[in-house]
Amino acid sequence: MQPPAYRVPFVVDRSRAPQRYYLVNRSPEPLEGVRLSLLGSGQMLPVSTRRMQPGGVVAFAAHGADLSRTSVVIVRWFRSNGEEYLWRVSF
């Protein structure tokens, strides 16, 4: 029997888009090694944090022409049990 699905622990606050976005940890657990990187033709400085507490927020900014068609942000993190996860965020 498979374990239950693990819900993505993040929500992206787009209230200040397109200048700035906020990744929010909405889970009840701290997350380790959270890293954000941009895949595509846009530009973004890589963002990382060693530990993101519940309710924690990481800000990021991406720039480029038509990001919604040309780029995605990849979020990588680890749970406390060491399992690695990836999530793709569209603009």
Global Rg: 14 Å
Provide a count of the helices: 1
User: How much helical structure, as a percent, in the residues?
Assistant: under 10%
Counting structural domains, the number is 1
Q: Please write the string of helix (H) and strand (E) elements.
A: EEEEEHEE
Distance between the termini: 36 Å
What would the CATH topology be? Immunoglobulin-like
CATH hierarchy, class: Mainly Beta
Strand order, sheet with most strands = 4-3-6-7
The description of the largest β-sheet is:
4 strands, antiparallel
Q: Report the uncertain regions.
A: none
The CATH architecture would be Sandwich
Shape: globular
Brief overview:
The protein is mainly beta. The protein is built from one helix and seven strands. It has a single domain, classed as Immunoglobulin-like (Sandwich).
Architecture overview:
This protein is globular. The N and C termini lie far apart (36 Å). It has one domain (10-90): Immunoglobulin-like (Sandwich). The protein is mainly β and 91 residues long. The chain contains 1 helix and 7 strands. The strands form 2 sheets. Strands 4-3-6-7 form a 4-stranded antiparallel sheet.
Annotate the secondary structure layout.
Elements: E1 10-13, E2 21-25, E3 31-40, E4 47-52, E5 57-60, H1 67-70, E6 71-78, E7 84-90
Antiparallel strand pairs: 1-2, 2-5, 3-4, 3-6, 6-7
Can you tag this structure with a few keywords?
91 residues; mainly beta; Immunoglobulin-like; 7 strands; 3-stranded antiparallel beta sheet; 4-stranded antiparallel beta sheet; globular; 1 helix
